[in-house]
Write a structure and sequence with these properties.
It is a single chain. This protein is mainly alpha-helical. The protein has nine helices and two strands, in the order ααααααααββα. Among the domains are: 61 residues, no CATH class; 140 residues. The longest helix has 66 residues. The protein is flat.
Length: 308
């Protein structure tokens, strides 16, 4: 095919769009691009560019320059405007306000005149911050609660299936053992009694292992949820109860009974504050600090938009 773009120009564009020299594995692409017009070369390289993210170079430069230009113009205007300069002096910084709201030490927070924020201002800002985060954290809690319930319900159902299968297996093994004893004429011998004891012990040990493992799985899921949301009532305790089988090889028929339910996880063993609760408080404090910063610096009175 005819060469439409010099190879050196293709390589130069490759370096510009990818930020590196082409490697041996790239040379087939380089050769292919030489058959394309310069504009198409740029368009094709821009598609997978980690630098311009799909933009051709001229568009990328205009976007970057536009943002930098806006930032500079804003900064220059603010610096030259005496009203802005006066309003920005004397007030606490955003970081200082966030720290004060997070720690509860708000005595040193000052507005643009160097005066402390009123209690009403602080309470209103905190209330607005909590309201702003309410929908997100309530939705997050609903999802994570549903996920925990689903996981715990499945574990509980899996263990119940194990109990059913274990009980059926015990009765089948017992029936086989009884038939063998009858066929060999040792139905009432001491060796049969020992076999029954061994059968019962084997199933009890297997059940203890299965229960211990399931208790560990349930505890991990429950503890992870409690770590996120603290010790508040979450209605998950109904999933902490596991039953058991009782085994009696001496019975002529059956031999499997049901044991009482018992809890395998106790939330009161842990005292978690709740990482999600802490996250929400922190997010609310940050938003509240922004509201106080805006109020303290009176940006709206100058015609500028609130910064936070």
């Amino acid at each position: 095919m005819a060469i439409k773009t010099n190879k050196s120009d293709v390589i130069a564009n490759f370096v510009r769009y990818h930020g590196r020299q082409p490697q041996a594995s790239d040379m087939a692409t380089i050769d292919y691009l030489t058959t394309k017009a310069p504009a198409e070369v740029e368009s094709l390289l821009a598609k997978n560019s980690p630098i311009t993210n799909g933009l051709i170079w001229s568009e990328y430069q205009r976007q970057t320059e536009t943002q930098e230009s806006v930032d500079k113009k804003y900064a220059d205007a603010a610096a030259k405007n005496p009203a802005i300069a006066a309003l920005a002096q004397g007030g606490s910084s955003l970081d200082e306000i966030i720290n004060g709201l997070s720690t509860g030490n708000i005595s040193g927070l000052l507005d643009w005149e160097g005066k402390p924020f009123s209690v009403a201002d602080q309470q209103a800002a905190l209330a607005q911050g909590m309201e702003d985060t309410k929908l997100y954290y309530e939705a997050l809690k609903s999802k994570e609660t549903a996920d925990a319930e689903s996981a715990l319900a499945k574990k509980q159902a899996d263990y119940q299936d194990y109990l059913i299968q274990s009980g059926q297996s015990f009765e089948a093994d017992k029936a086989t053992s009884d038939k063998q004893a009858a066929d060999t004429g040792v139905l009432f011998s001491g060796s049969r009694v020992q076999r029954e004891k061994n059968l019962t012990r084997a199933y009890e040990q297997d059940q203890a292992t299965a229960r211990r493992n399931m208790a560990g799985d349930i505890g991990t899921t429950a503890r992870d949820f409690q770590y996120k949301y603290g010790n508040e009532n979450n209605n998950l305790n109904k999933y902490y109860n596991l039953g058991s089988n009782t085994f009696n090889a001496n019975k002529a028929r059956g031999g499997v009974g049901s044991g009482a339910l018992s809890s395998v996880y106790n939330p009161s063993n842990y005292d978690f504050q709740g990482t999600r609760n802490v996250e929400r408080t922190g997010d609310a404090a940050t938003r509240s600090a922004g509201y106080l910063w805006n109020k303290g610096n009176k940006l709206l009175s100058t015609g500028y938009q609130n910064k936070y």
